[in-house]
Design a protein that fits this description.
The protein has three helices and five strands, in the order H-E-H-H-E-E-E-E. It has about 150 residues and is α+β, with helices and mostly antiparallel strands. It has a five-stranded antiparallel beta sheet, with no helix packed on it.
Length: about 150
């Protein structure tokens, strides 16, 4: 296997591994019971600002893996070069991912507690709450709170 094929294989594997790792929106938490459609209406009880740490986009791991593979490819010859290329790619990916995580500041999110019409409570975390106030009548749809 030549150098170009090795690097291409590393890039394909790295991209495939990182495809499902990124998350750009905060997750919703809800009560354990399932809610019927009529239960998605309610009143806002509280709104709190919280910090959501980003899990990283994976760009740091991919970039680190590529740099590590290129540096590892400069070492040795034959099977030793192949092993150094793979080790450099893995080490670079780990280092790049850690650097990206340490630079991530997280983002503000709004934790909104809603008292539903059926008496249950639902807590939703979303990226903004510009038109929402405590006491507003709202509808919860697909993990987001909307005024109505």
């Amino acid at each position: 296997m030549n150098t170009k094929q090795t690097l291409a294989a590393i890039m394909v594997v790295g991209t495939a591994l990182l495809t499902g790792c990124a998350s750009t929106s905060p997750q919703q938490t809800s009560s354990a019971t399932s809610q019927p459609d009529s239960a998605s209406y309610g009143t806002i009880d509280s709104i709190q600002i919280t910090r959501v740490n980003s899990s990283g986009s994976g760009v740091g791991a991919v970039a680190g893996g590529l740099v590590g593979a290129l540096l590892g490819n400069q070492v040795g010859s034959g099977n030793g070069r192949k092993a150094a290329t793979v080790a450099g790619a893995v080490g670079g990916a780990v280092a790049g991912n850690e650097i990206e995580k340490s630079r991530g500041q997280g983002q503000d999110a709004y934790q909104i507690s809603v008292r539903l019409n059926n008496g249950d409570y639902r807590t939703v975390v979303q990226d903004n709450a510009t038109d929402l106030r405590v006491g507003n009548r709202v509808r919860v749809v697909d993990g987001r709170v909307y005024r109505y």
